[in-house]
Amino acid sequence: MLTKGHILDDKYEVIDVLGKGGMGTVYLCKNIRLGNLWAIKDKK
Questions:
Q1: pLDDT for residue 6 is more than 90
Q2: Contact indicator for 12, 34 with CB cutoff of 8 Å
Q3: What pTM was estimated for this model as a whole?
């Protein structure tokens, strides 16, 4: 599980967890270059 503030791909900062389930975890992330928000799924 990723923690708040973790940087993915030198591009996305994890803001919060949106949801968890049997197929993975969905995070609310901010694109640090553009400033927009994304939902990113980690399949683990």
A1: yes
A2: no
A3: 0.89
Please name which of 10, 13, 35, 9 lies closest in space to residue 27, comparing C-alpha atoms.
13
Determine how β-strand 7-8 pairs with β-strand 24-31: unpaired
Angstrom distances, CA of residue 6 to CA of 36, 39, 41:
16, 14, 14
Number of C-beta neighbours around residue 23 at 10 A: 9
Which pLDDT score is estimated for 44? 72
CA dist 43 → 6, 13, 34 (Å): 17, 17, 25
φ/ψ of 31, rounded to 5, equals: -75, 115
